[in-house]
Amino acid sequence: MSYTDLQYHIVFSTKERQPLLDAQLRPRLIKYIGGILRGLNGKLLEADGPEDHLHLAVSASAQSNPSALVRDIKANSSKWVHETFQDRRGFGWQDGYAAFSVSHSVMPKVIAYIRNQKAHHERVSFQEELAALLRRHEIAFDERYIV
Q1: What's the pLDDT at 145?
Q2: From CA 106, how far away is CA 109, in angstroms rounded?
Q3: Mean pLDDT within 61-80
Q4: Alpha helix (H) ranges present in the chain?
Q5: Do residues 114 and 47 touch, judged by C-beta distance below 8 A?
Q6: CB 102, CB 9: distance < 8 Å
Q7: pLDDT at residue 67 is higher than 80
Q8: CA–CA distance, 79 with 62 (Å, rounded to integer)
Q9: At 1, which helix (H) or strand (E)?
Q10: Mean pLDDT of the chain
């Protein structure tokens, strides 16, 4: 028998950071992403973000890896948006993502952070936020690619 507790904080933005995640789309999209994760034997613990990016708190199965998980979420959710919202044919996700492993004991803080995204982005830009997350996790990055 194997036992795992694989939890991630995942961040990715809309293509060209277009403000497409409005109040009409965001809640339905988040619910759909939850279904994608259930289909992958995972669980969406929390999700939110402003109109140009999403933060996901995810519990993943032992068979998944972060890269494949994000690929499946982005591909399937983008297809769903195109099929469900005829006026959103230009919707897409930007290439790349950020993913951080999160211990079970810290996940409640990550969930609270995600729930506070709207207030957080009244004072901090996406670029500032992503750079701070990367620094906090000691991930080297080139500021030219934080767009």
Answers
A1: 79
A2: 6
A3: 95
A4: 26-39, 66-84, 107-115, 117-120, 126-136
A5: yes
A6: yes
A7: yes
A8: 26
A9: none
A10: 94
Is the pLDDT at 18 greater than 90? The verdict is: yes
In the CATH scheme, what is the code of domain 6-145? 3.30.70.1290
Report, in this order, helix, strand and coil percent for the chain, each rounded to 5: 45, 20, 35
**What distance in Å separates the CA atoms of residue 30 and residue 134, rounded to the nearest whole number?**
24
Position 119: which residue type?
A: A
Mean pLDDT calculated for residue range 101-109 = 96
Q: In terms of DSSP H, where are the helices of 85-115?
A: 107-115
Question: Given pLDDT bands bounded at 50, 70 and 90, which one contains residue 69?
Answer: very high
Every domain of the chain and the residues it spans: 6-145
**Planar angle of CA 27, 40, 99, nearest 5 degrees:** 70
List the structure tokens of 60.
Answer: 């993943």
Question: Residue 56 has which token pair?
Answer: 């996901």
Largest CA distance in the chain: 48
Q: How many residues does the chain have?
A: 147
Residue 147 scores a pLDDT above 80: no
Phi, psi (deg, nearest 5) at residue 24 = -75, -45
